[in-house]
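Let's practice the habit of predicting before peeking. Look at the sequence and jot down your guess about where helices and strands might fall. Then scroll down.
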Amino acid sequence: MSPSNKTSRLALLNPLILLLISLTMLLPILNIIAQSLSGSVALSTGKVILWPVEFTMANYATVLHQAAIWRAFGISVIITVCGTLINLIMTASLAYPLSRHEYRERKFILLLVLITMIFHAPLIPNYLLVRSLGLLDTLWALMLPGAISAFNLFVMRSFFLSIPNELIESARIDGAGELRTVWSIILPLSKPAMATMSIIYSVALWNNYSNAMYYINNRALFPLQVKLREFVITDSSDLANTANDVANLSPEGLKMAVIVIATIPIMLVYPFLQKHFIKGMLIGSIKS
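Done guessing? Here is the structure:
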C-alpha cells in the first residue's frame, strides 16, 4: 500500500474516531438532561434514553424552590470567583520573579516548588495546618490551602519567559517600577495564560467537595457540590413528597436536575474564554 493511500485512509478514519470519542462524552450528558426533564412514570419504567419522555419542568421547579440549594449555589459562586482571583494573583506573583534571570535564588525556589509536586502532604497534616490557622468552618479553608498549584506555576512561568526581555527593559528605562511593569506590560500580554489558568482553577474550585467535607462542619456553609452529593447518595423521596406536583416527580429526576444545575454555570464560562484558552493551551509547545 502506497503512503498516499495510507494517508487518505487515516484522513477518513480520524473524523470517525473523533466523532465516536465525542459521542462517548456527549451521550451521558444528554441522558442526564433527558432524565431531568422526564416524568416519574417514564423514569421508573426505564423509557428515557436520550430524549425526554412525559416532558415536565417539575424537577427543576422543585429543586429551585429549595432555599438550601440557592444558598449552596451562592457559596459556590463566591468560592469560585474569589478563589480564582486569589489563585491568579498568587500564582502570577510567584511566577514572575521566578522568570527573571536577575533573581538569584530562583533555582532554589523552583526546586522547593518541584518537591511539592512529587511529595504531597497527607490529609491529616493538611487538616492540622488548617485547624492551627483557624480556618476551620470558614470559606477561607476552601480557597487558601490551594492558592498556588505547582503545575500551573510552571506553566505561567514558561509563558512569562516567552515575553521579550526588551519590553521589560524599555519599561524600566522609562522609569516604570516592577509593579507598573507587571500591570502595564506583563499581564496584558499574558491574557492567554491567565484565561487558561482561570478555567483550570475555577473548574477545580467549583467541583471541589472533598475540602468542604474535611474542613466544614457548619451545614450553612456547604457549597453546591456537597448538596449535590447529598442528593446523589441519599434518598430524595422526602423532597418529592413535599412538592406540589408529586405525580411528575421522582427521586432520580430530582437528582438529575441538581446535576444539571450544578454543571451549567461552569460550562458557561468556557465560551467567554475560548479564544484565549486555545492560545494558552499552546504555552510551551513552541520554542524559539
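How did you do? The CA atoms of residues 92 and 221 lie 29 Å apart.
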